[in-house]
Amino acid sequence: MAVWGGAGWLLDRWLDVKVFLPVGVILGVAVAIYVVVVKYGGADPTLGLRRKGSTSGGTSDDQGGTRTQKGQR
């Protein structure tokens, strides 16, 4: 962000305009997010999906309605 923002600031001073600094900062943020996603991977697409018949709170319909605490089986 600082590198692209600095490059935009330099272009602004050289061309005597005030448009490249914000563009450089936005470009720097986009590149930073891209690098983080490439390095650590994207979100697991099945993370938000639940198994059929399961509900929140640690109960499951396919277990006969028995209740368990979270983290226990």
Quick synopsis:
The protein has 73 residues and is an all-alpha fold. 48% of the residues lie in helices and 0% in strands.
How many E strands? Answer: 0
Strand content: under 5%
Question: Largest sheet, if any?
Answer: none
- Count of helices? 2
Rg? 24 Å
Helix and strand run:
HH
Summarize model confidence as the mean pLDDT.
79
Q: What is the 3D form? A: rod-shaped
Poorly predicted segments = none
Instruction: Classify the helix fraction into a percent range.
Output: 40-55%
What does this structure look like?
The chain is mainly alpha-helical. Helices cover about 50% and strands about 0% of the residues. The chain has a domain of about 40 residues. It is built from 2 helices and no strands. Helix 1 packs antiparallel against helix 2. The longest helix is centred in the middle third of the chain and has 21 residues. It is rod-shaped and about 70 Å long. The two termini are about 45 Å apart.
